[in-house]
């Protein structure tokens, strides 16, 4: 084979690759075609590398956080704390739009009490000789705290004699109660009006969660729940909650209505929308609520009504007493929601809601990675859990909320299942999920304040959780006990070793939660970055 000779000023590579001098036109065409094909492949590889780099860069700056946990564990309340802590300007701009939601929370609670009163009045009309035919006539002492929104917790009242339907002396209802019921009747219309105003975004719980029940997001549809030990508190009203259909829809509905009504003199505008600089505007609902203020207060503070609620074991929403105790402040024509009002306002989440959290201040944090997080807030009812799975793949971090006050309560969607047991089952499936194996997981053992209140009222943990044994019946000891149980499961079921971050929280305490969230944020970012460096 003849060897080529190189002159000193020739590029050797060029010489090698140069087409042979005797190349035929056909050979040339074939060579060019091959070269073009090779270039196409090379360009495709370059493009894919470029796209991967872009995606990775994006991923690095965007942390996707999932909020998981059973219904009423405090996920949406935690999300509000994220917004209040890290995006305070956006929070203030939106705060006023919550007025109708707070009003609806208040009116809804009053109407639920009126429902119970109507039932009781029908069974035992005032003026008639007292009989023990009341459906809820069981002898029960009143709660010592006027702010309690749960039935009286005399030691072990949950398993004691105070069940609805047992005979007992009838309640001392008078004409005053019948009159209060009549005078507060317009609040039905107000509730409907507020629901309409919120774009029909609020609806009865249960109706919205019509899917198949799954104990965990990975399960087959759920059939029967295990009966936990002890008698559990049941929810007397499965439809006491209000549903949030989408993260923006009710806010958009408020704004649209406001715009369509104009703001000129004589217009019947509703509460100001996000960003409004005007004061609260007058509307029919607000007028009626303000007009009913004294009667609402009289109803809520009435001793016989409190006794009735206790006998019926009626459990209002956790935030109900917060609003009912503040009727004088909320039921006014000039009412504007406070930060606490917004944090406490209850709207049950339906489906999976995506929020973009833009950090307004990134002091002390690497600016390139902390500007925006995507937070997914999910509906926690069993029927809603299958909808979580598609969001697992992209999630970098997960905040799991387990309410620790509910060791003696049953699930609203299945009264045979203890709520704490449900949280454990869910936790186990989440930490053991292969899909979530790369996720950083943070646990909030939430509702510490309600746990404390319940234990102080004398409810015995071991009656409902025999494994607790003779440990102290106090909130700090029980919280520590649960912390270690959740940690053990985390260690045992995680597909690969990972750190455990567990906090005992009360997410309606915005100040304490702000500092917890700051350390959660720092921890998450640090972990996220470490992973990024490993992959880069
Ligand atoms: N007292 C007290 N109430 C709390 C706490 N956390 C949440 N709540 C209240 O519990 C209720 C339920 O909280 P949410 O944040 O709406 O619960 P969720 O997990 O989003 O529930 P779903 O949307 O149904 O899945 C609300 O009325 C909150 O104000 C807490 O730590 N203490
Ligand atoms: Mg929610």
TrEMBL record:
A Pfam family hit: G-alpha
The entry's keywords: GTP-binding, Magnesium, Metal-binding, Nucleotide-binding, Transducer
GO MF assignments: G protein-coupled receptor binding; G-protein beta/gamma-subunit complex binding; GTP binding; GTPase activity; metal ion binding
PROSITE patterns: G_ALPHA
Metal-binding found in the keyword field: yes
Region annotation (Disordered) ranges: 1-30, 124-171, 204-240, 257-284
Protein name: G-alpha-domain-containing protein
Provenance organism: Fomitopsis schrenkii
């Amino acid at each position: 084979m003849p060897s080529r000779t190189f002159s000193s000023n020739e590029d050797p590579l060029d010489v090698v690759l140069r087409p042979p001098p005797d190349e035929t036109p056909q050979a040339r065409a074939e060579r060019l075609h091959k070269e073009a094909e090779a270039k196409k492949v090379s360009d495709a590889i370059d493009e894919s590398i470029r796209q991967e780099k872009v995606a990775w860069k994006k991923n690095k700056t965007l942390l996707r956080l999932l909020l998981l946990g059973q219904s009423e564990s405090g996920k949406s309340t935690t999300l509000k704390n994220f917004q209040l802590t890290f995006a305070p300007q956006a929070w203030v701009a939106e705060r006023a739009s919550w007025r109708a939601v707070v009003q609806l929370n208040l009116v809804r609670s009053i109407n639920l009490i009126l429902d119970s009163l109507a039932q009781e009045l029908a069974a035992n009309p005032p003026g008639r000789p007292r009989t023990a035919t009341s459906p809820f006539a069981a002898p029960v002492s009143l709660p010592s705290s006027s702010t309690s929104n749960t039935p009286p917790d005399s030691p072990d009242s949950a398993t004691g004699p105070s069940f609805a339907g047992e005979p007992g002396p009838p309640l001392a209802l008078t004409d005053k109660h019948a009159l209060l019921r009549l005078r507060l009747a317009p609040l039905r219309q107000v509730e409907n009006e507020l629901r309409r105003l919120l774009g029909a975004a609020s609806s009865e719980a249960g109706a919205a969660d019509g899917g198949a029940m799954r104990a965990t997001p990975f399960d087959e549809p759920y059939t029967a729940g295990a009966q936990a030990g002890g008698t559990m508190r049941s929810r007397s009203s499965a439809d006491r909650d209000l549903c949030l259909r989408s993260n923006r829809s009710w806010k958009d509905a408020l704004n649209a209505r406001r715009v369509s009504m104009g703001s000129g003199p004589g217009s019947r505008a509703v509460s100001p929308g996000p960003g409004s600089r005007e004061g609260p505007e007058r509307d029919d609902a607000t007028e009626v609520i303000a007009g009913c203020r004294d009667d609402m207060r009289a109803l809520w503070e009435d001793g016989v009504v409190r006794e009735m609620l206790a006998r019926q074991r009626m459990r209002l929403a956790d935030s109900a007493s917060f609003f009912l105790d503040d009727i004088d402040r909320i039921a006014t024509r000039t009412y504007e929601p406070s930060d606490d009002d917004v944090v406490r306002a209850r709207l049950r989440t339906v489906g999976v809601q995506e929020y973009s959290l833009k950090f307004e201040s990134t002091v002390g944090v690497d600016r390139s990675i902390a500007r925006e997080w995507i937070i997914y807030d999910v509906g926690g009812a069993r029927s809603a859990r299958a909808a979580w799975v598609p969001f697992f793949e992209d999630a970098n971090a997960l905040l799991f909320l387990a309410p620790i006050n509910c060791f003696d309560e049953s699930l609203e969607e299945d009264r045979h299942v203890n709520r704490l047991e449900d949280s454990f089952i869910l936790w186990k499936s989440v930490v053991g999920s292969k899909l979530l194996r790369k996720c950083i997981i943070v646990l909030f053992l939430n509702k510490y304040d309600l746990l404390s209140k319940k234990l102080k009222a004398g409810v015995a943990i071991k009656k409902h959780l025999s494994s607790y044994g003779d440990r102290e019946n106090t909130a700090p000891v029980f919280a520590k006990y649960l912390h270690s149980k959740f940690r053990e499961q985390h260690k045992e079921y995680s597909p690969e070793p990972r750190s455990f971050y567990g906090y005992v929280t009360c997410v309606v305490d915005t100040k304490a939660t702000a500092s917890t969230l700051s350390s959660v944020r720092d921890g998450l970012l640090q972990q996220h970055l470490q992973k990024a460096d490993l992959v880069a």
